[in-house]
Design brief:
9 strands, 123 residues, eight-stranded antiparallel barrel
Length: 123
């Protein structure tokens, strides 16, 4: 009986390890270079599919859609990061992000911390 319990625990531990490794592999996000971001973004939209979306134009124009409201902005690269410029309550605001990709999923990180997650809405 002791041997059976020991084997069960080992099998359970191995199952947990395999599951954890599978999740980690599926969650691998690659940091994108400015050139990769440009190829991925120009002419396309990123969003959550319901509440917000960003559409990137080749000329650096940005169309921001948030809860049914659309407003203009600009995008550019600074030091390998994607910078989004827009007006918030009449004041210019600019935020720069590291962009990471896993399949169609994208994460926007600031100082290594994910602050926004979306997906490619059109390819």
């Amino acid at each position: 009986m002791t041997r059976r319990i020991g084997r069960s625990r080992v099998l359970l531990a191995l199952g947990c390890l395999v599951t954890a490794l599978s999740v980690q592999a599926a969650e691998h996000y690659k940091r994108l270079t400015a050139a990769e971001m440009q190829r991925l973004l120009v002419g396309h939209s990123i969003g959550d599919g319901a509440h917000w979306a960003y559409r990137f134009a080749a000329d650096g124009g940005l169309e921001l859609m948030d809860l049914g409201k659309t407003r203009p902005g600009r995008w550019r690269f600074v030091g390998g990061e994607l910078c989004l410029e827009r007006s918030e309550r009449g004041k210019a605001q600019s935020d720069c992000y590291e962009l990471r990709q896993s399949g169609k999923s994208l994460r926007f990180l600031r100082d290594g911390v994910p602050v926004l997650e979306g997906m490619l809405l059109d390819e």
